Amino acid sequence: MRFDVVRIIVLILVFSTMVAVFSSALVHADDVFSSNEPPWMIHPLPIIIGREDCNITIPINLTDHFDDDITNVTDLRFGIELRGENSTMIRAGIIGFGIFIDSTMTKNFYSFKSIEGRIAVTDTGDRNNSDPMANYSNWFAVYIEPVNDKPVWNEIPPIAVYEDTPSKDIMDLSDFITGQLIVLDGGNSLPEDRTWKP
User: Fold this and answer.
1) What is the mean pLDDT for each group of 10 consecutive residues in the chain (198 residues)?
2) Which of 99, 92, 94 is nearest to 57 (CA)?
3) Does CATH number 3.90.70.10 belong to domain 40-145?
4) Residue-by-residue DSSP string for 146-197
5) Which of 7, 95, 96, 112 is the most buried (most CB within 10 A)?
């Protein structure tokens, strides 16, 4: 009888030790799976196209392009940065989950090259109060399309016409019209409208 009691006590001690080890493993596994990972891109960003002398919000939803292991995509924080030779000629920002392009800083500016952008995305951390994690999208091209502006008339000086004299050309009106000549890639051009009717 005494031997059976000893066996029971030993079994209880072994079982208690196994429960303690198993519980410790569960805590450790929970720590591993709750670690915060940086957000990741699920779809590359496409070419972004703005317009000369305009403020435009690009119809794109950034939450469709990123995901995160813990933070809901609508709680991710987004920013944008530009690089390239002409990147200081425009401004860019985030409005809601869209991209805002402002090309009004430099009058008549347009560009089909030399500007690239990328999105910075940051999560909110995790339930263990770890620091937020950040990541970036691909670099994507930013184009500013030209706009065909109306011609500008300069001041025309007074005209003197003498009575009973034959008609003749007095002046070339094209000398008093100014307009930007837009040069596109490939050597094509989009001239401003310089036509007139008397």
Assistant:
1) 54 56 48 74 95 92 94 94 95 95 92 92 82 94 88 74 71 66 51 42
2) 99
3) no
4) ---PPPEEPPPPP----TT--------GGGGEE-PEEE-GGG-EEE------
5) 112
> Could you state, in order of their start, the residue ranges of all structural domains in the chain?
1-33, 40-145, 152-191
CB distance 97 to 63 below 8 Å:
yes
Q: Which of 97, 40, 43, 95 is nearest to 70 (CA)?
A: 40
| 106 CB neighbour count, 10 Å cutoff | 15
Q: Say whether pTM exceeds 0.70.
A: no
Tokens (6 digits) for 188: 């094509």
Q: What is the pLDDT of residues 111-157, one digit of tens each?
A: 988 899 999 999 998 767 678 999 999 999 999 999 877 777 777 77
